[in-house]
Amino acid sequence: MRSISVDWSKAKEKPDKKQAVEGRFLLDLRSKIDDLEQKLKQREQKIEKLSKELNDTKEKLLEKEKSLTEKTQELSTTKSEIDAIKEEKINIEAEIDNLKSNKSSLEQNLEADNEKIREFESKLEELEPQVGNLKEDYEQKERELEGVKKDLQQTISDKYIEIESLKNELTDQINVKENQIIEAKNELEAKNKEIEAIELKIKSLEDYIEESKGAPQVIEGIKELMSHKGFLSDKELEDLIDKHRE
């Protein structure tokens, strides 16, 4: 390949001065410039990619640091819990030692309790027949009580029916008495009216006696009729008066 004939020293000394350059040189220069631009673009993309990866790496690093901090705190908490468990273990071991030291006393107490249990069981065996008898007596009393309850319920039912019957009879009697009272009241009112009528007749007779000489005969006639009939009609009174006026 032919080299490009460019006098770079002259171009540097006189940058404004033109030089004769072949077209191939320009094309070659253009190709190199494009190649450089392409490489520059690729490098920029690579740098951008590396920058993004770096940011991602930083974020992951921060997350790792955060996780490490949390793990450290958890480790500290776990260590505190382990210390507490160790302390509790020491207390439990001390309590176990204390229980072991009291084991003999507890065994003695247990033996005494077992002896009491055996005594209670023996007494229970003795009391079982009595319990059976008491149970039978209770069941018998319960049956008797049930019979008494049934009899009492029947008696109450009979008394209730009897009371209802008496109530009905009394109601009928009251109705009859009320009717009798109404009839007596009506009769009394009728008698009062008769008495008022008789009083009017007597008043008429008194007036007549003052005016008539035949009054004694009229009175005798009235007495005679009253003794026979028990009452005196207006017509009979008028007939007596007319008779003794003649």
Q: Helicity level, as a percent range?
A: over 70%
What is the β-strand count?
A: 0
Beta-strand content: under 5%
Succession of helices and strands: HHHHH
Tell me the radius of gyration. 73 Å
Q: How many helices in DSSP terms?
A: 5
Mean residue pLDDT:
76
Distance between the termini: 202 Å
Catalogue the unreliable spans.
Answer: none
Structural class: mainly alpha
Describe the structure concisely:
90% of the residues lie in helices and 0% in strands.
Describe the model.
Among the domains are: 26-101; 195-245, no CATH class. The mean pLDDT is 76. The protein is elongated and about 200 Å long. Helix 4 packs antiparallel against helix 5 (234-245). It has 5 helices and no strands. The protein starts with 7 loop residues before the first helix and ends with a helix. It has 246 residues and is an all-alpha fold. It has helices at 8-13, 23-101, 103-211, 215-229, 234-245. The protein is 90% helix and 0% strand.
